[in-house]
Amino acid sequence: ECNVQAHAIMEAMGHSSMTVTDDYVRKANKKRIAVDIARAINEREAKRDAMKRRAAVRVVK
User: Fold this and answer.
1) What is the distance, to the nearest Å, from the Cα of residue 55 to the centroid of all Cα atoms in its chain?
2) Residues near 47 by Cβ (< 8 Å), separated by ≥ 6?
3) Looking at the chain, which terminus has fewer C-beta neighbours within 10 angstroms, N or C?
4) DSSP sequence for the chain
5) Can you tell me the distance from the alpha carbon of 17 to that of 2, in angstroms, rounded to the nearest whole number?
6) pLDDT band at 3 (very low <50, low <70, confident <90, very high)
7) In sequence order, what are the residues at sequence separation of 6 or more whose Cβ sits closer than 8 angstroms to the Cβ of residue 35?
8) Residue at 50 is within a domain
9) Would residue 32 count as lying in a domain?
10) With contact defined as beta carbons under 8 Å apart, do 18 and 10 qualify?
11) What's the rounded Cα separation, in Å, for the pair 15 and 21?
């Protein structure tokens, strides 16, 4: 799948070799991974905060 995308990028950008295209693909993948990691951290922190709020709420009878 990635190889097909890389070839499509190479053709669209007019690169004569995959070397230049690989640089673009590698940079895009690094950005995508960084965004995924940040999203996972934010979701984990949101869950932890929600658990803390639930623990702080006590029912008094």
Assistant:
1) 31
2) none
3) C
4) -HHHHHHHHHHHHT-SSHHHHHHHHHHHHHHHHHHHHHHHHHHHHHHHHHHHHHHH-----
5) 16
6) low
7) none
8) yes
9) yes
10) yes
11) 7
Q: What is the mean pLDDT of residues 26-55?
A: 91
Show Cβ contacts of residue 13 under 8 Å, excluding neighbours closer than 6 positions. Answer: 20, 21, 24
Please give the angle made by the CA atoms of 51, 58 and 41, to the nearest 5 degrees: 10
Of 18, 40, 37, give the one whose Cα is nearest residue 29: 37
How would you label 7-43 residue by residue, b for 16+ Cβ within 10 Å and e otherwise?
A: eebbeeeebeeeeebeeebeeeeeeeeeeeeeeeeee
Domain that holds residue 37: 2-56
Which pLDDT score is estimated for 35? 94
